[in-house]
From TrEMBL, chain A:
Key words, A-Z: Electron transport, Mitochondrion, Transport
SUPFAM superfamilies the UniProt entry points to: Adenine nucleotide alpha hydrolases-like
Entries under SMART domains matching the protein: ETF
Source organism of the structure: Tetrapyrgos nigripes
GO BP annotations listed: amino acid catabolic process; fatty acid beta-oxidation using acyl-CoA dehydrogenase
Protein name (Swiss-Prot/TrEMBL): Probable electron transfer flavoprotein subunit beta
Gene3D superfamilies reported in the protein's UniProt record: HUPs
Electron transfer flavoprotein alpha/beta-subunit N-terminal domain residues: 32-229
GO terms for MF: electron transfer activity
Entry keyword Mitochondrion: yes
Cofactor note: Binds 1 FAD per dimer. Binds 1 AMP per subunit.
Cellular component aspect of the GO annotation: mitochondrial matrix
TrEMBL record, chain B:
Biological role: The electron transfer flavoprotein serves as a specific electron acceptor for several dehydrogenases, including five acyl-CoA dehydrogenases, glutaryl-CoA and sarcosine dehydrogenase. It transfers the electrons to the main mitochondrial respiratory chain via ETF-ubiquinone oxidoreductase (ETF dehydrogenase).
Chief localization: mitochondrion
Quaternary context: Heterodimer of an alpha and a beta subunit.
GO function terms (MF aspect): electron transfer activity; flavin adenine dinucleotide binding
Species name: Tetrapyrgos nigripes
Name recorded for this polypeptide: Probable electron transfer flavoprotein subunit alpha
Annotated compartments: Mitochondrion matrix
Record-stated family: Belongs to the ETF alpha-subunit/FixB family.
Amino acid sequence: MRPTPSRLLNILVPVKRAVDYAVKIRVNSSQTGVDLNVKHSMNPFDEIAVEEAVRLREKHKSDIKSIKAFTIGPPKSVETLRTALAMGADSAVHVELPESAPSPEPLSVAKAIRSYIGKQESEGGVDVVILGKQSIDDDLGQTGQMLAGLLGWGQATYASKVELDLGKKEALVTREIDGGHEEVRVKLPMVVTTDLRLNEPRYASLPNIMKAKKKPVEKLKPEDLGVDFTPIIETLKVSEPPKRVGGGKVESVDELVEKLKEHGFTAV
Amino acid sequence: MRPRPVCFARPLFARAYASPSSPHALLFLDHRKGVIDPGSLSALTAASQLGGQVTGLVVGANDHVSSVLEKAKSLKGLTSLLHSTSDIYAEPLPETISPLLEKILSGSEYTHVVSTPSSLAKSILPRVAAKLDVPAVSEITSLEHDSASNSTTFTRPIYAGNAIATVRLPSTVPVKFFTVRGTSFDAAPSEDGKDIPVQAVDPVEVSSPTQHVSTKIAKSDRPELSVASRVVSGGRPLKNAETFAAILYPLADALGAAVGASRAAVDAGYADNSLQVGQTGKAVAPELYIALGISGAIQHLAGMKDSKLIVADPDAPIFQVADIGLVGDLFEVVPQMVEKLKQ
């Protein structure tokens, strides 16, 4: 039996191009930011988000109508979208910012996503937005919650397991919380943010990378979404963290315990 | 020179506009079932440094709220308390608590909203900030409020702690949201015989799209990781959950330390997720941090390099931040340490 159209889900996955997690970053000499002339890749939490969207389709097959990747950033951000497409997203949207534009803040990103979702109403809307829980560059961890707030949707942050119940139009989500985890039942449409434990993202195969080159990428300008990406938070300075002085090596457990005791660390 | 003539020409306007309004922070006092999250005490210290009033907000079920209020009343730096009690808050959800915060903040005199970066507060605060159309600043490590310009300047780590950003929320942001890294501020102490006004706020009934189903908290008698003064952390070489426990726990117990873990150890299932130390886990800054079988990836260092004394393997990258290093087979070294510490 063919599912009724109302049960077909559209998933939106906002992704961010960030400095690769393995790069040792350097603060620039003018202390205005970090040297960005280094390897970039998709924010690791966003890879998990794309993977989850693709797995949901593998599980629910044709009930998932579309998986769309979305990014806001300079021209090179399109590479990040291609990665998402190679992992299994169907199409992508690139809100292009000038090369020199400052990184947009979570609030404006959330507004842009809300605006885009509004434009999708005629295409069947968006039912699930899956985002990373934080980007590893600004480490703010706010966009998903802000988006859910702006839309008035349910939110499941720090998800480690997502089970969709398409009949009931809801999801059972396990969330990582301080000291353990909790389960929540969220009505669709909803916003999910991914924790590391949600899944292990796949590597895109060469054929899929080739196919991704033919998948559609829609280009938008900030004006198309009516969002001003000028930062509100003023960055006054970016500096190196204080350096630790190198320590000393001890040769034996006796010596180590002696040192610990010298510093006042004894058994309780 | 420029603004002066204008000020003199319209002294009343200038006065009304430029007279510094005293900061008034709303502190979201996070608690679990009536026990205050220790990070909230550090957040209170940070909020006090704004130089104005600090109102604590306690939300929850009746019993829980009353036990939090009892403790909170005497906290140094709090000038008043608000509480909202309802069964709908017994299992806190952003969808149910956010409307309450919006109500409290709308048209109010609050200039700042402060909290510890607990998983609950991190889920709620950005949601509320967006509804108020203001940005938020996460995990600040220092702050300075300028009443004259009504701007607040913060420092916060970015790029996994490999850079420190100094950022300012300008006067155009009427309510300034921020979370406070607990390891950078002392916990606010209690003061005897303190009496502050306590006021109830009606709960906001909303039809939440989200329902709580169940909660599982990993039980432990050891100190809470993020506030422990000593931490013993283990990595992948600990082989499995059994050896992780068998090796680490006796040392942690001998030192009265909390147990932490690297991402590798958590991913391999040796330890609960909530024990992960690092950029995406907990940030710790204990007096003593002992890293066992942890190489020291950037992401792990992000969570522990502010510790006072670090003990680690000198052959691993983590030794770049360590004070004392010992090379050895941890399966032999650690039991010896336990024995010798106890002597």
